Amino acid sequence: MPTVGVKRDILFNALGRSYTDEEFDELCFEFGLELDEITSEKEIISREQGDSKASGASDVILYKIDVPANRYDLLCLEGLVRGLQVFKNKLEAPRYSRVSPTTGEVQRLIITKETAAVRPHAVAAVLRNITFTKERYDSFIELQEKLHQNVCRKRSLVAIGTHDLDTISGPFTYTAKPPGDISFKPLNQNKEYTASQLMSLYKTDSHLRHYLHIIEDKPVYPVIYDSNGVVLSMPPIINGDHSKISLTTKNVFIECQDCVGRHGDHVQPELAYRKEKLTGEFINRKVGISEPTENIAQLLTRMCLLSQPTGAGDEIEVEIPPTRPDVIHACDIMEDAAIAYGFNNITRTTPRTYTVANQFPINKLTELLRQDLAAAGFTEALNFALCSQEDIADKLGKKISETRAVHISNPKTAEFQVARTSLLPGLLKTVAANRKMPLPLKLFEISDVVLKDETKDVGARNSRRFCAIYYNKSPGFEVIHGLLDRTMQLLEVKAAREQGYHIQAADDSTFFPGRCAEIFVHGKSVGRLGVLHPDVISRFELSMPCSALEMDIEPFL
Amino acid sequence: EALLQLVEKADGGVDSLDVASSIGVDHQVIVGAVKSLQSLGDVISAEQRSSKHWELTDEGTELAEQGSHEARVFGSIPLEGLPQSELMKLSFGKIGFSKAMSNKWIRVDKSHEGGPRIFRSNIQDQVREKLLLVRSGAQLEEKDKNELKKRKLLTEVTVKSYWITRGSSFSTTLTKQETELTPEMIATGSWKDRKFKPYNFEAMGVAPDCGHLHPLMKVRTQFRQIFLEMGFSEMPTNNFIESSFWNFDSLFQPQQHPARDQHDTFFLSDPALAHEFPQDYLERVKTVHSEGGYGSQGYKYDWKMEEAQKNILRTHTTAVSARMLYKLAQQEKFTPVKYFSIDRVFRNETLDATHLAEFHQIEGVVADYGLTLGDLMGVLHQFFTKLGITKLRFKPAYNPYTEPSMEVFSYHEGLKKWVEVGNSGVFRPEMLLPMGLPEDVSVIAWGLSLERPTMIKYGINNIRELVGHKVNLQMVYDSPICRLDS
After folding, report:
1. Mean pLDDT, to the nearest integer, of A528-543?
2. Closest chain A C-alpha to B257 CA, distance in angstroms
3. Which end of chain A is less crowded, N or C, counting CB atoms within 10 A of the terminal residue's CB?
4. What are the CA-CA distances from residue B70 to residues B95, B132, B256, B330 (Å)?
């Protein structure tokens, strides 16, 4: 969720009244914003860099306001104030339109085919006759940054450049060139660099280095020239110094290039208003209220969606402004009506949906079994489903290729390389973390492991396992064996070779030779039990003998 | 019994130290007797008191008997004197020499032939006299006491003793008390004539030898119970691996959405891609994303099959809800459903005290004709009431697959503020209609994490102490039963 920082007094001034913190918090809540933090520049610096650095900083009170991720129209002071004032019926939503320059001649941005290899789309617009103050200028730059971070996905989808139009002359060309062929003086530097030099220069820039990867490996880099060959920008990295905007800038040239858009050859900005028709009944039915059509139109208008009953029954015509790209369906309009009505004013009702509850069978079995395993003296552990390759392979004396494990492609650390294929490593790690506890340690877990399975649509499936270990000064195979017998008793499986369960000697590199047995139920193998191999015990940083049992429980459904 | 006799004779009571010296046994023996008499009930009453007195240390005792080091130095020097080196060989030589020098009992002739030689002057061994005084029980001046204490010849000892008086059931003869009832006593009836030692009800009992359920799982059991009480059926969530299609695309989450980024989601390298999809449904999903439909503008981008195929560790159990709702839409005739699940989800997040890469999501879903936002709030009210939370309010929020979306806040009496307890919303038509659900069916849903209410319930601040192998088993052993509404 993006956070917008605004100076409290300037905000209240723009809202035409002041609020207590609680009142403003309440207003935010109602509108779907969150007053996240009340702070000051001084406080932020002192928290991040220490008191000494903060001494000269401003202690003007700042409100940090969380804005929903789809409301790009609220990402600056001006947008927030507009939204809130319209919501409070103190202002009518402005109507935006494109104005042709007095000369009648529009600026042109020519897109060459070379850009297809890197960022194929671009649009541009001009903002004329504006007057910046320090506050407005800062807000303008900050809004651009917020857009970059959010809707532009950290410039990876879209990058925006702003230029002083009076320092450059159209038509402009958006093209792409090999990095060695691009050379210009970038923003706030005092000499020319080639694009390749810039990429190494910005490697250490705390801000810009995060964007380099977007074009770094491309054969050509995007670049925008004016008609005299002045470089406006090398998106999405940096603008040219020549055309930078300042407090005295009157006319701003804005260019955006992107990777996903579909724009035709149009005069920009389009600033298209769209009309939708829906009924008052639809809103009432979906929200669970019964407001007259007229009132619903007023509710929507308060959300910057100018609405009017058409007179045809309860039909309402709603105008969606270009600032609300998030409104793509009638349900979005319905939500705005509900917000303006006040979520907390809606009567809470009980749906009459009649249903009979069912438990998921494997979960029901798990729940029942867990209770009785705890009653048998074992304590339940709860371990992660993700772990390292080493945990499920090397440490258990197995090869990773034997495990049928699914592999994660982008783990941040080794702890998240694979999904576990066995519950045993988790239990052994739990024992290792609890070595100070009195012996014996008797632990169990019933949970899912993940195995590759080509018969499934995703190529993998979960398998519900039961695992238990006994850790003491003596191996206690008989304890674990006794637990198996008890489990089978709980599952109503008799001890019998064909029509029940039996165990039989098996070889398994996880277990001590001659101390491992395979568990068969109705002739089918369901798991193993035995005394762990001393190497396995040491690899988990343990020092006592340990016996363990792991089996599938799905066959008992 | 000798003690009891003495107590009987004494009028006001006796001190255990005096008893020990009068009977001629060690004081500890008397203390033991006092304790065992006390356990018999009110035979005697004993009040603990302590007294301080000075005692000679081992070294002090030695000095009291043989004289101070300096006196012994004096004594060992013959009239004709002694070479200094000889003197230093004696055990008391070094200390005694310096003290004797400062007392001017001896003198050193450094120019003497054959090295310094020591001659005696005259002596008064005050140290020994003082030590003997202490031993006889007499008091010394503060200054002298401190001087001797400094030389480690004296120590102050605290002696604990009992002041013993007669109790309410005082008797000089004792009947032996039984500790426990035995089968023989029951068989013979002898228990009727015996006196039994009283139990100490202040002591703790012996901890039972038992297993324990994990606190997070105890809370999970309660949430399952609540859903079952409310008539919700459990969804099959035993599939951690999910395709991006079911996890995102089917939920109308666009392919450029940040949640689908490498930084937020675990992708798989093996098996990297999912292969089977309901083809006609997949086409409808593609269309609604790229072109819109069902009354929607869509997101207007080139929807890519390769993105949808990517396998991931599911980021929410809503992927399963999507599968269930699709399945429901394939029924001949729609029937209303209420579903729930509580299972693991995975996020490639930066870890801290409250965030892990995997956690349990609790989810509830209701699908029926004509459900309203008011219905969603009503169901949430009922659900949270079962958790003991009755004060709820709702904040507009944003979620790609629900519209309206509401964050659920409850008033926290302890913190005196509203805290977020869950998320909820009405599934978007762009999600439901391509599945084939009837147009007038609404689906309301909500979700919360299992870990957070558990951490609050059991007062755990660091999530690693609750989930994973670093859990403190003592915490598991000690955790009480879980009643969410109390």
Report:
1. 96
2. 8
3. C
4. 7, 16, 96, 110
- CA atoms B337, B340, B341, B345: torsion sign: positive
Does B208 contact chain A (CB < 8 Å)? no
**Contact between B295 and A330 using a beta-carbon 8 Å cutoff:** yes
3-class DSSP assignment, residue B406? strand
Whether B308 and B282 have beta carbons less than 8 Å apart is answered as yes
Distance (Å) from the alpha carbon of B389 to chain A's nearest alpha carbon = 15
Model confidence, pTM: 0.81
| CB nearest A358 (choices: B233, B300, B377) | B233
pLDDT at B2 over 70: no
The whole-angstrom distance between A249's CA and the closest CA on chain B is 35
Q: How many Å apart are CA A271 and CA A358, to the nearest integer? A: 53
Confidence bin at B395 (pLDDT 50/70/90): very high
What is d(CA B150, CA B130) in angstroms, rounded to the nearest whole number? 14
**Confidence at residue A64, expressed as pLDDT on a 0 to 100 scale:** 93
Which of A4-13, B85-94, B235-244, B251-260 holds the top average pLDDT? Answer: B235-244
B274-288: pLDDT as tens digits:
999 999 999 999 999
| Chain A residues within an 8 Å CB radius of B401 | none
What does the pLDDT read at residue A284?
96
Q: CA A421, CA A462: separation in Å to the nearest integer?
A: 9
A238 conformational bin, left if phi > 0, alpha if psi -120 to 50, beta if neither: beta
Mind telling me how many Å the CA of A164 is from chain B's nearest CA?
Answer: 32
Position with higher pLDDT, B44 vs B218: B218
Give residues with Cβ within 8 angstroms of A304, minimum separation 6: A73, A82, A83, A86, A93, A321, A323, A324
Closest CA to B373 of A305, A304, A336: A336
> What was the pLDDT predicted at A497?
87
Supply A227's token pair: 């008609």
CA distance B279 to B342: 29
The predicted pLDDT at position B50 comes to 76
Helix (H) or strand (E) segment spanning residue B354: none
User: Which range has the worst mean pLDDT, A477-481, B22-26, B56-60, B113-117?
Assistant: B113-117
Residues 347 through 376 of chain B touching chain A, CB cutoff 8 Å:
348, 350, 356-358, 366, 368, 370-375
pLDDT band, residue B307 (cuts 50/70/90)? very high
Chain B interface, best mutation among A65, A74, A353, A378, by max B CB count within 10 A: A353
| Confidence category of residue B119, pLDDT binned at 50, 70, 90 | low
Secondary structure in 3-state letters for A445-484: EEEEEEEECCCCCCCEEEEEEEEEEEECCCCCHHHHHHHH
Nearest CB to A260: which of B235, B256, B274? B256
Q: Is the pLDDT of residue B477 over 80?
A: yes
Alpha-helical regions (H) of A219-360: 280-287, 293-301, 330-341
Binding-face residues of B in 279-298 toward A, CB within 8 A? 292, 294-298
Contact status, residue A271 vs residue A123, Cβ threshold 8 Å: no
Are the Cβ atoms of B336 and A334 closer than 8 angstroms? no
For residue B482, give Cα distances in angstroms to A369, A382, B216, B221: 18, 17, 10, 9
| Nearest CB to B398 within list A68, A359, A386 | A68
Closest CA in chain A for residue B222:
A367
Are the Cβ atoms of B210 and A377 closer than 8 angstroms?
Answer: yes
User: Can you tell me the ipTM of this complex?
Assistant: 0.90
Residues of chain A numbered 116-155 and touching chain B (CB < 8 Å): 153
Q: pLDDT, tens digit, for every residue of B413-441?
A: 877 888 899 999 999 999 999 999 999 99
* CB contact at 8 A, A517 and A536: no
Of the residues B224, B230, B238, B427, the best mutation for testing chain A's interface (the one with the most A CB atoms within 10 Å of its CB) is B238
